[in-house]
Write a structure and sequence with these properties.
Rossmann fold; alpha/beta; four-stranded parallel beta sheet; 10 helices; 2 domains
């Protein structure tokens, strides 16, 4: 049966979970046609075969198709039966993939609805780490220093904040503290073990260019002291002295992507954590 859509096609999404997967597939398919759009009707969390007849009867009012992700065989069979009754094309998004994976795995799928959306401990840790990075960004609250897994220190525009946010997505609680010659750094940073404190530095010429561009985006003159080479050299020298006093590892962020800097920071952190655990075991 061929359906000609005079307006935008109507697509019913029926799912035993949220229905996001089926919706994405439906929209991707619709984008290949002239309008590129579709009227989506989502019916999520369908878990009882008795619900199916009413849903399909409602859909039959429109010239539509049904796209579904139902992992329980009883639900799929009920839906396919009702769809045939009304002559509605029904597309099973999930079953072909389950069958293909079953052949490779050599076993049957669990057939539990919504597994991909179950929120686990790892998800909560990531969200908590992101919230932590925002709360303790740029030294706004020095109390975060002692709560952090890693504390990043460095002068302005050395990518402290992007690094902390990247680490947060790796479920690491990261805070950052700016080093400014006119401001005494919080005493909390002197209480951290070296592997949890990481300094960022950068070549003066690159920082000079970065700061000049920053001033332009703010609508300020590039001749401001903030972007002067004299000021930059003063700040770098001050930061180097603080980092030497703290005996922390220093990463040169010059021409480095945040992923590369993060990789080095994580290596320092995890090596230090392993060393601490070994010392604890020896003492016991």
């Amino acid at each position: 049966m061929t359906i000609e859509f005079k307006t935008r096609p109507v697509i019913y999404i029926i799912s035993d979970s949220i229905g996001e997967t089926a919706e994405l597939v439906a929209l991707a398919a619709a984008s290949q046609f002239s309008s590129g759009q579709a009227d989506i009707h989502k019916v999520p969390y369908v878990n009882n075969p008795d619900e199916i007849p009413e849903i399909v009867a409602e859909a039959s009012v429109f010239p539509c198709i049904i796209v579904y992700t139902l992992v329980l065989p009883g639900l799929r069979e009920a839906l396919e039966k009702e769809a045939r009754k009304y002559g509605i094309p029904a597309v099973d998004v999930m079953t072909p993939m389950l069958e293909a994976l079953s052949k490779i795995e050599g076993k049957q799928p669990r057939r539990e609805p919504g597994l991909v959306h179950k929120v686990d401990e790892e998800y909560f840790r990531k969200v908590e780490a992101i919230e932590f990075a925002v709360k303790y960004d740029d030294g706004k609250d020095p109390r975060g220093v002692l709560k952090a897994d890693i504390v990043i220190i460095g002068i302005s525009r050395t990518s402290k904040t992007p690094l902390c946010m990247y680490l947060a997505h790796k479920r690491i609680k990261a805070a950052n503290v700016p080093l400014v010659p006119e401001v005494i750094p919080p005493e909390e940073i002197y209480k951290l073990p070296p592997h949890r404190l990481i300094g960022l530095t950068i070549q003066p010429q690159q920082l000079y260019q970065i700061r000049r561009e920053r001033l332009k985006t703010l609508g300020l003159t590039a001749s401001a002291d903030y972007a002067s080479m004299e000021r930059i050299l003063k700040e770098l020298e001050y930061a180097e002295g603080i980092m030497q006093k703290l005996n922390c590892k220093v990463i040169d962020a010059t021409n480095k992507a945040v992923e590369e800097t993060a990789s080095k920071a994580l290596e320092i952190y995890y090596r230090g954590e392993r060393h601490v655990k070994q010392e604890v075991c020896v003492s016991l």
